[in-house]
Amino acid sequence: MFPGDTILSFFLIAQIFIGVMANSLLFMNYIYDFLIQPQLKKPIDSIFMHLTMSNIITIVFQSIPNILSSFGVKRFLDNAGCQTVFYIYRVSRGLSICTTSLLSAFQAITISPSHSKWAKLKSKLSTWIFPSFLVFWIINMLIYIHIIETVRAKWNVTVIGHGFVHAYCQTRQSGDRHSGSFISVILTRDVLFVAPMIMSSLYMVGLLYRHHRRARHLHSSSLSRQMSPENRATHIILLLAFCFVFFYCCNNFMDIYAYYRPQKDSRMVGIAGILSSCYPTFCPFLLMKNNKNIPKLISSL
To answer: I need a labelling partner for 28 at 20 to 30 A (CA). Which of 63, 180, 209, 255 fits?
Structure first.
């Protein structure tokens, strides 16, 4: 194994261990609140649960094939295995996009002033969460049916030509008449969810800025330094949205570059895998900053 492969394997193993452990711990915390302390649960907690579950699936199905490939394991997946792994990974990644967008919009409506046009939607927010989850699952499961038709096992070490390449899988070479329409559907899905995420984030930034300006006029400096739970949660969700957009753009850039690169590189595939799992790995640590029950859960475990 070359030094570069060793470093790549180390990052992949560290990422899957840290990411899965952190997301599982956070998921257990929300389950604990729902079952043991139902009086403390909030509607937004169900969105956090759905996000952490999507993160775990994304990390596992993205990282494990790359880790085995980096250690030189050959032909781990056949055609059916590639279609299953790649389909589940892409659906879970799509769910992460949709759920983060819902989270950003939910918080923007929650903190909107009572005189805002969004205020009348606050009472309906909790009733929209689970129908939204169902819509997200249906949309992403239907979109990625195309993967079952186009993904196959990669039997050759060297792959030449346009197409997406995974550790053990690859798409059919150019000439698939449906590839253009599939990419158009993906781009439409991303625009429909990423654009509202960005707009709601900018709206929350404006609200927080106005709140900060009003707080500076308070006579007591101790009061001005205090931050309400809603504002703390808003800061966390803004960080989540920023991290998502950053890693989303980086990962898409790598995917596009790898797609059009004539000669495929296994290390580049591994780097793209690390980038695609960065947001699911960092996400639980941002959410833990606003969760006071994590230390209690760790001590009880």
So the answer is: 63
Write the single-letter amino acid at 117.
K
As a whole number of angstroms, the distance between CA 13 and CA 26 comes to 20
H/E run at residue 152? strand 151-153
DSSP for 67-129, written as a single string? HHHHTT------HHHHHHHHHHHHHHHHHHHHHHHHHHHHHHHHTS-TTSTTGGGGGGHHHHH
Phi and psi dihedrals of 295, rounded to 5? -60, -35
Read off the pTM: 0.85
- Write out the H or E segment, with its range, that includes residue 153: strand 151-153
Confirm if 30 and 49 have CB atoms less than 8 A apart: yes
Distance CA 171, CA 20 (A): 28
Cα–Cα distance, 231 to 205 (Å, whole number): 10
> Cα separation of 56 and 277, whole Å?
10
